[in-house]
Protein: Adenosylmethionine-8-amino-7-oxononanoate aminotransferase
Amino acid sequence: MQTPSLSARDQDLIWHPYTQMQTAPAPVGIVRGQGALLFDENNNSYIDATSSWWVNIHGHAHPHIAQQLAAQALQLEHCIFAGYTHPPAVNLAERLLKILPDNQRRVFYSDNGSTAIEVALKMAIQYWDNKGTRKHKILAFKNAYHGDTFGAMSVSGRSVFTRVFDDLLFDVHFLDVPTAENISQIITAIAALQPEDIAAFVFEPLLQGSGGMIMYDATAFEQLLQYCSSRHILLIADEVMTGFGRTGKNFAMEYVQTKPDIICLSKGLTGGTMALGVTTSTAAVYEAFLSSDKLKTLFHGHSFTANPLACTAALASMDLFIDPACATNRQRIHEKHIAFLSELQQWAVIKNARLLGTILAFEIITTNADGYTNSLADQLHRFFREKRIMLRPLGNTLYILPPYCITNEQLDQVYNSIRELVSIL
Ligand SMILES: *Cc1c(COP(=O)(O)O)cnc(C)c1O
Structure:
């Protein structure tokens, strides 16, 4: 008898994320990766056009990262991070602070994007508490996505993702994403909330990822940040997806002058190799926790905080990231996208074609409402899977968010599959 496929064995046992298990097609068993390609159990290759859920930046199974990881695994795989430290954690903190906005001074490690957000929220609330003022109000954007744990869900826009839990989430004041037209109304609305009661404003700078790859204006955003800053509202930049070059700059906050008090990083941090989260803070935030009073401690940590292997993967990814070849690749992708964008803009079945750095997005016009539950999503996902291209739409929003090593030929294959889709719609 033939051994059952990976995919069949999976279907007997595994519950997949964001997947309606009753109707989802059998998962593809992936056994190997190289560059922008992933290979299934029958050795078919798939172009990873969305960077494996936005995490991969240098390609799969990158030899430099793999070798550094293997060496570290033989040296020190893990160690408690309270009362002890190790070279990968210290080296990574030093190197991260060199490339982050220059007001950042401290690095707090956790496990993923959601935990980086939880830590940021706790830092912000306790910062004020430690200074003797309780502040309960938090600002966030409508349509925001900051993760799937309860704190992260609370600061995310209320949506189909949070619906069942909405009454268990803490209250947040949601703002429209700023434009030249609405910015003064947004500021008036914040002023009416009594800004002295607002602890923090958490935002995805310039690009709302899961909310539908919504791109917004840097000038109005800057005005909003300046206003919040002048009212002593702590600014939490969620760069979990925008970090490490996706938007054209190393970090999206480089598009504005105002510097955040707290930054959250995760997805691209290890080059997509391992789970790791980072929350950085200014000296002012950090110093508010220094005290002879133990109650002013930040009581937060995870078993795998600052895992040496994950930190090593991040260091190896950083070697590749700071190499000028990486920026050249990002620019190359950006320029290819520009050419395809002008083509997209001419097609009647497509609207809102837009581009930021290496990310190209657009909506397919359907008779159903736009949004994550738009039924077109499953059809599109299947269409591209059959073409052996990994594109996973957000509802009727399609986007390309490739690893920076994707070749021009591979990008052309992705564009061609979209041309073919448009021709049959
Ligand atoms: C993915 C994402 C998160 C959550 O990260 P996880 O590692 O999936 O928990 C938080 N913020 C943003 C902007 C994200 O895109």
Q: What stands out?
A: The mean pLDDT is 96. The first helix runs from residue 6 to 13.
